[in-house]
Amino acid sequence: MKMTKKANQLTETKRTTIAAYLFISPFFILFAIFGLFPMIFSFYLSFFRWDGLDPMTFNGLHNFRFIFSDPIFYSSIKNTFIIGLLGTLPQIIVSILIAFALNSALIRFRNTFRTLIFLPYITSIVAVAIIFGLVFNNQPFGFANYILSFFDAGPIRWSAEYWPVKFAIATMVFWRWVGYNTIIFLAGMQSISKELYEAAKIDGATIGQQLRLITLPMLKPIVMFVVFTSTIGSLQLFTEPLIFLGRGLREEGITVVAYLWRDAFVYNTFGTASAAAIVLFVIIITLTAINLGLSNLIGRSKRKVS
Amino acid sequence: MSKLLKLTALMVLAILFLVACNGGNGNDASGEDVDDPETTSETIGDGDVELVFWEFGNTGYDKLIEEYVADNPHISINLQNSDMNDVHDNLFTSVSSGSGAPDIAMVEEAQIERYRNAEDAFNNLYDLGAESVVDNYLDWVFQNGESADGSFLFGLPTDIGPTVMFYRTDVFEEAGFDSSPEAVSELVSTWEDFESVAREINEETGKLMADAGELVFNARRDQATQQYFNEDDELIIDDHPQIREAYDYVANLFDEELVGDIPLWTPEWFAGMEEGTYATMLAPAWMQGQIKDNSPEEGVWSITTMPEGAGNWGGSYLTVPSESEHAEEAYQFIEWLTAPEQQLKAFLGYGLFPSSPQVYEMPEFMDYEDEYFGGIATAQVFSEAAQQVIPVYKGRLYYPVDEELKQAIDNISAGDDRDEEWEAAIQRIERILQR
Amino acid sequence: MSTKEVGEGKFSVKKFFVYFVLVGGALVSLFPFYYMFVMATRLNREINTVPPPFTPGTHLVENFQKVTDNIDFFGAMGNSLYVATTVTVGTLFLCSLAGYAFAKLPFKGKKVFFVMILVTMMVPPQLGLIPQYYIITALGWLNDFKAIIVPGLINAFGIFWMRQYIAEGVPYEIVEAAKIDGCSNFRIYWNVVVPMILPAFATLGIIVFMHVWNDFLWPLVVLRDPAVHTLQVALRALNDARQMDYGMIMSGTFWATVPLIFVFLMFNRLFIQSLSEGAVK
């Protein structure tokens, strides 16, 4: 009896392994066809000079040497981090709070609010560009400048000054993605058992305590997920700076992906664009590793305390 | 609550449906649409040789094509209309990877610079017989479609965008000037005049002479005999004074606050057309559509020649990518489409300004008057400008370089130092060239 | 929805504050969308004024007629619907399957495979355009929906999301119990896991559907023939070379977005259904 069960288990493990491989294989097969070649191609291109039309010519490390000597490339890295921090960190906090509110029975019209909060994700980028162009207009009649005028602050050139550009783009990022993350947090909160809240309420926990002691700890995997994807997303920020700055992409607001996009499709220098892409890739990997390490550390220390 | 939402949903759907049916019926039954809409794509004719033709903008070519396929029954043409940038991006991707290009591709004047090095990707139209039609077009337009040494022809020109001075008659009158085109042309015949008139207008009316530095700079740039690159693609911007002069000229106007910093294509720029925020606009022929659309009152805007010459902004070429299996037929067709008679039709029907000087002599063209601009023969003003344009070599990176100068101009409009901004722009340009 | 839940109670300052913030946030979210509608009802000239108009005008039908005169709006909508639905269904299936494997099945090299998936997310996609186009032409998929659908099924984000959700949302004991009952791995996935992860499906479904529906960068490159244009690609053809009729463009854009609200509500229902089921559990 015992023996057969063990034998069954053995084949069981084998079968499970095969099933698992089967289940994950579609991604890897499709990626091998459509994703791997472009990746390798980019890597290859970074050692060549290519305008997209003429034959490629090998030029060693010139592309890397060039971007590392280009002050605008450094600006683009700095901008990416500043805008990413300004736009993403507050966004995650706010979307947790909104999701918490929308998840509780505290709120009526939840469906309506959910839909409304999600609208920015589906609003046409052209309309967004026009509205944000009006809000962050350089002229005194621009909405932001008009408000500033009440505080005797002079009109700001939102599209050209160092901090205002970043603030404007970060606002746009915040606006476009807060609803998206709210929806993700909401899904995470669904899997938290209602009984926990009931019990906490009986113990007399305030809403703040419920959020801090139940929602956040239970939501940790989803928070980590959002932090992870948002980090990558903000490091690959592209659409918002492009629509706010136009194809000129001033140094004050250019991001790394905007930089490499301009190299590739405006200057037609695919070599330097690929080199920049590889540098960005390395930055993202390093950061994610640190990120994961840190959150593991925090997770562990918390567990110890509790 | 969800009921309410469902109800709204149903209502919106119903509206959508009604609007849709309405749109369909209106088209078929009444046929009231005067300017017959052009849909995004249609295969015209049923000949065996199908030519795929990528175009952008509102050209009205579908009607001309109908004429053509009637006379050439073995040809059918699949006309695909798209956004201007998309057409160019798709052409670039196709050419770059070697497949997917059409038989005929419309390429904008500015974008043709991108393909200067890619002679392999296009048919040399000289090999297909373009030698015989050289005289059909203005020299400078034709040369722009050639390689630097003149041996390779990328495309045949369709329309052009000669620049003139649009001006507000009311503002000129308010400042005490005669506002007839002849008088204004006389009054503002040099760039010095432009500056002094700007000063007077500003004193009398408080209004700006021009919307932004960009169009003034473009106007002076286009009158330069040398611009950013020489024919060996070397940067010569600092080797001759003409571009720097244009730059300083704009900087002076900024210093005296005679020119605004209203960015082009923004709502406030369009609004300024109607409100008369600025007295002149140095712009190409096709800009009249924008002006009419945004400032509908007749007789307020008028047109005259620009000081010291003209320039060109816009216009297109028809190319035959080398991938085409029907290069001969494609060439025959574009030669026909860009011949003077067809250019006249495209002008009268859709306002495409002809690149062929023969058209300028045709009576229908010369008599073309525009009530909106006070009933003057606008076509003649534009054709005069078109003949004044001087050909200049631009080079593959012309527009990225131009973009950097525009950024410098934008900065000096906000009060930055002009020498520092010039230096910074030159440095940025040099880095682009190092890539 | 009538069950008493978290924080239910009578009026309080706090509650008022929460509503205040939510309503404010909702208005800020709504405004550009509303403005899309305003522009869809006005002429170009009316839009180009300072200050711009903030109330709807009278040209709603006229603007939309211009759209249908210029492009095959409903044909393109059908194409979009087809592509977005196919990609969404396919993605939900493949991602949850892989997510389940990563969350609950023990197998060799799991960590390595998972990290590989995460790494693919870190490659900036902008440069892949030309090589990807090359692959599509090599496969002969130019002007074929397959060019959108098949690469669209690659979704590292979705696998990651499903893994995260299944790892937390599906208790290990239930999977074990099903295993002891002799269910195959796929049966466990289909009969046990899928019903428990409906909120994750709804969320990913919303995101994928909206993304595919609104994407135009890639479809623009591979769908050239107007017969296969998706809505976003077709709408691009409304842009004239120099003269933009924003009234018409926004009309097309607005009506192209409206279906998304229904899709959202549909998924939202799935979400709420799963919520009440969750309460039973």
Description:
The complex is a heterotrimer of chains A (306), B (435) and C (281). Chain A has 306 residues and is mostly helical. Chain A has a single domain, classed as MetI-like fold (Orthogonal Bundle), CATH 1.10.3720.10. Helices cover 77% and strands 1% of the residues of chain A. Chain A has a two-stranded antiparallel ribbon with strand order 1-2. In chain A, strand 1 and strand 2 form a beta hairpin. In chain A, helix 4 packs parallel to helix 8, helix 5 crosses helix 8 and helix 10 packs antiparallel against helix 13. Chain A is flat. Chain B has 435 residues and is an alpha/beta fold. Chain B has 2 domains: 180 residues, Periplasmic binding protein-like II (D-Maltodextrin-Binding Protein, domain 2); 194 residues, Periplasmic binding protein-like II (D-Maltodextrin-Binding Protein, domain 2, 3-Layer(aba) Sandwich). Chain B is built from 18 helices and 9 strands. In chain B, strand 2, helix 2 and strand 3 form a beta-alpha-beta unit. In chain B, helix 8 packs antiparallel against helix 9. Chain B is globular. Chain C has one domain: MetI-like (MetI-like fold, Orthogonal Bundle). Chains in contact: A-B, A-C, B-C. The interface between A and B is medium-sized, with 32 and 33 residues.
Low-confidence stretches of chain B: 1-5, 14-38
Q: Provide mean pLDDT of chain B, rounded.
A: 88
Task: Write down the domain tally of chain B.
Answer: 2
List the uncertain runs of chain C.
1-8
Range of helix content of chain B: 40-55%
What is the CATH superfamily classification of the largest domain in chain B? Periplasmic binding protein-like II
The CATH architecture name of the largest domain in chain B reads: 3-Layer(aba) Sandwich
Beta fraction of chain B: 5-15%
Largest sheet of chain C: none
Overview in brief:
The complex is a heterotrimer of chains A (306), B (435) and C (281). Chain B is an alpha/beta fold and 435 residues long. Chain B is built from 18 helices and nine strands.
